[in-house]
Amino acid sequence: MCKLNYVDLHVHTTASDGTLTPSEVICLAQKTGLAAIAITDHDTVSGIEEALIAGKKLGVEIVPGIELSVAYEKEMHILGYYIDYKNLFLQNKIKELEQFRLQRNPLIIKKLNLLGLKVELEEVKEIVSGNIIGRPHIAQIMLKKGYVNTINDAFAKYLAEGKPAYVAKRRISVQEAIAVIHSAGGCAVLAHPKYLGLSKEKLDVLLDELLSYGLDGMEVYYGSHSLNEQICYKELAIKKGLIITGGSDFHGASKPKIKLGQGINKSRFSFDLLDSLKKFCN
Ligand code: AMP
Ligand code: ZN
Ligand code: FE
Ligand code: FE
User: Fold this and answer.
1) How close is the Cα of 196 to the center of ligand 3, in Å?
2) Is 135 in the pocket of ligand 1 (CB under 6 A)?
3) Three-class secondary structure of residue 217 per DSSP
4) How far apart are CA 68 and CA 80, in angstroms?
5) Which listed residue, of 56, 137, 154, 273, carries a Cα 20 to 30 Å from 36's Cα?
6) What residues form DSSP beta bridges with 38?
């Protein structure tokens, strides 16, 4: 049998705000010809067990992962790879993050109600199968009820930072995120550096700070990174001795432009990325 050469190291499922279950995602990965995928749901590991079972059945290698939202001036995400998802310290931290969300969602709903949009938390809960309820789920209900024309609209008009129904999420610090990933035996990778909106010089300085907290890698290959940005991030990663990862940030129907296993211009993520990650983490 010929070796499958491609992977996707950044994938969401219904355990957070993706629209495919872990089994469905893995079935799609198999059909797409991917040798391996990392399950990296937001602030939860509840999809990993199902993913491992489905992966074994369908012959797709699964990397147990997570994507943590951390406190920084802008939204910053840290990916954790090869984590022991049963680790108690990690599980406790995840419970804390769930509590943050439980407090935040009713506040978003209240703001929407005050703006005249009749959205209730109960109807949002009905469409969520995992433990994580976030703005994309609220946006789905707003769309269903005809208050907005697209999910993007829901963010642009109401839910995004600076918009009238925005409520900041309490986040853990970046030091804490890296430490919790390490204590669960994983390695910590800065996700989609583009979203930080920094110049190369400023990112260089930030990486030094993150390295001092133990950062292990950076997501160089990513759907929204242009070819030039990828070159810039690769240069920085090599300079800093960071491992290089790549993934699509697949979410299913809620982000329909993102295809599983694909980066910019339909590029794919090489198996070599997984090989180096594995060598580094294990
Ligand atoms: P939350 O965790 O509740 O703060 O929501 C964060 C999620 O919302 C992440 O998956 C983001 O990718 C997603 N998100 C942010 N902006 C948009 C947008 N304009 N359209 C769709 N999803 C978005
Ligand atoms: Zn998401
Ligand atoms: Fe992210
Ligand atoms: Fe993501």
Assistant:
1) 11
2) yes
3) strand
4) 8
5) 137
6) 63
Counting ligands in written order, the one closest to the CA of 124 is: 1
**Ligand 1 pocket, residue 192 CB under 6 Å:** no
Q: What are phi and psi of 127, to 5 degrees?
A: -95, 0
Chain segment 114-166, per-residue pLDDT in tens: 999 999 999 999 998 877 888 999 999 999 999 999 999 999 999 998 999 99
In a 3-state reduction of DSSP, which class is residue 268? strand
Quote the pTM value: 0.91
Residue with tokens 């209240």: 110
136 lines ligand 1 (CB under 6 A): yes
| CA distance linking residue 193 with residue 220, whole number of Å | 8
DSSP 222-265: ETT--HHHHHHHHHHHHHHT-EEEEE--B-GGGSTT--TTB-GG
Please give the single-letter amino acid code of residue 57. Answer: K
As a whole number of angstroms, the distance between CA 179 and CA 215 comes to 9
